[in-house]
């Protein structure tokens, strides 16, 4: 399926692009705000695509800025739709459950939906009303209270609850699945199951999770929202909180290192790697994964999907540490020594070959370019 996306550089836009990448669909046509200012350019770039996702919007600012920004962005896309030679099959608007609620933001979203619906002509129009979204790499004090609390905790602070109200939280990957019309069969749910929680309860859960993880322990992850909230918190910890040092216990019998203390199970396995060999070269959408080298020396390398900066950790069995792989980061581990490498891996779930949540992706960008050639 060929898609065009506005707002691709934002929080939801990044999650949509990573999700499309995981599905193996073509890279979407990206329309930034400069593009939207030219109706003929918009028309030429969306002509004949299967689906247009309108994600661009304004969440923060004065009432006037929020209202004008959301209405104008929708109007710009509408002007391009009216000039389109071959209308897209479907236009999808990432609306809000707050649409029409009497606030500047909600009323502007309602106007934006009406503007796009009126401009669709021969295109199907899908008005998807999204609740509070959370997920990895959200902007604190902008995208969601989850991002704000995670950033505060990751920096050693405490969440400040100013307005204790009920929230309906949906992970951004589930929203992406709904917006793109994804098939079932992966660690996503296009029905967008929500977690209902108060702001105070959320602060308490994240605070307890941060306290447990501070020692290297994996907190109890009882359901899919627990896993995704934990991954969201970890995205604000990476890379400054890693590697996490491990304690080596030694006596006359030998040595013992506690690599994983998980409060809710999971799967642990060991592997050997020959000198010069690289393992990994993939990423996960939801899985929690931990690496610990027990013997030999290695380099663990990671790159955020869609980015180009590589984070590297030199690790050794002589000084054991753990590095946890953040969701939606391509990662690998390379044996950099002369001897065989022994590594312990842990995942929060037992591997299911029918739903592996593992997507091939080289860490080095030049390898990505070669694979695409």
TrEMBL record:
InterPro entries: CapF_C (IPR029303), Epimerase_deHydtase (IPR001509), Lipid_A_modif_metabolic_enz (IPR050177), NAD(P)-bd_dom_sf (IPR036291), RmlC-like_jellyroll (IPR014710), RmlC_Cupin_sf (IPR011051). Residues 249-359 form the Capsular polysaccharide assembling protein CapF C-terminal domain. Residues 4-177 form the NAD-dependent epimerase/dehydratase domain. It comes from the Bacteria. Signal peptide: none annotated. This is Epimerase.
């Amino acid at each position: 399926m060929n898609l065009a996306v506005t707002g691709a550089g934002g929080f939801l836009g990044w999650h949509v692009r990573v999700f499309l990448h995981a599905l193996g669909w073509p890279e979407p046509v990206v329309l930034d705000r400069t593009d939207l200012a030219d109706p003929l350019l918009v028309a030429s770039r969306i002509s004949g695509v299967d689906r247009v996702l309108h994600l661009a919007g304004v969440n923060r600012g004065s009432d006037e800025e929020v209202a004008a920004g959301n209405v104008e962005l929708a109007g710009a896309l509408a002007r391009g739709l009216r000039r389109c030679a071959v209308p897209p099959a479907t236009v999808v608007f990432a609306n809000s459950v707050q649409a029409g609620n009497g606030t500047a933001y909600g009323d502007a979203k309602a106007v934006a939906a009406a503007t796009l619906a009126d401009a669709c002509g021969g295109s199907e129009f899908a008005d998807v009303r999204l609740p509070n979204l959370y997920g990895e790499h959200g902007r604190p004090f902008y995208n969601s209270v989850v991002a704000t609390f995670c950033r505060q905790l990751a920096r050693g602070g405490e969440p400040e609850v100013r307005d204790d109200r009920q929230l309906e939280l949906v992970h951004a990957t589930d929203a992406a699945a709904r917006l793109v019309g994804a098939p079932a069969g992966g660690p996503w749910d296009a029905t967008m199951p929500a977690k209902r929680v108060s702001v105070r309860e959320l602060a308490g859960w994240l605070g307890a999770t941060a306290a447990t993880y501070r020692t290297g322990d994996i907190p109890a992850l009882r359901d899919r929202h627990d896993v995704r909230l934990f991954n969201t918190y970890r995205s604000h910890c990476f890379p400054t909180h890693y590697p996490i040092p491990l304690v080596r216990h030694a006596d006359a019998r030998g040595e013992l290192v506690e690599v994983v203390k998980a409060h809710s199970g999971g799967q642990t396995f060991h592997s050997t790697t020959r000198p010069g060999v690289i393992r990994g070269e993939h990423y996960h959408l939801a899985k929690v994964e931990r690496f610990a080298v027990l013997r030999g020396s290695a380099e663990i390398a990671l790159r955020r999907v869609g980015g180009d900066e590589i984070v590297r950790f030199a690790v050794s069995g002589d000084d054991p540490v753990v590095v946890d792989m953040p969701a939606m980061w391509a990662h690998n581990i390379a044996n950099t020594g002369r001897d065989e490498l022994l590594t312990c891996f842990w995942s929060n779930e037992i591997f299911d070959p029918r739903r592996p949540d593992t997507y091939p992706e080289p860490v080095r960008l030049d390898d990505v370019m070669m694979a695409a050639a």
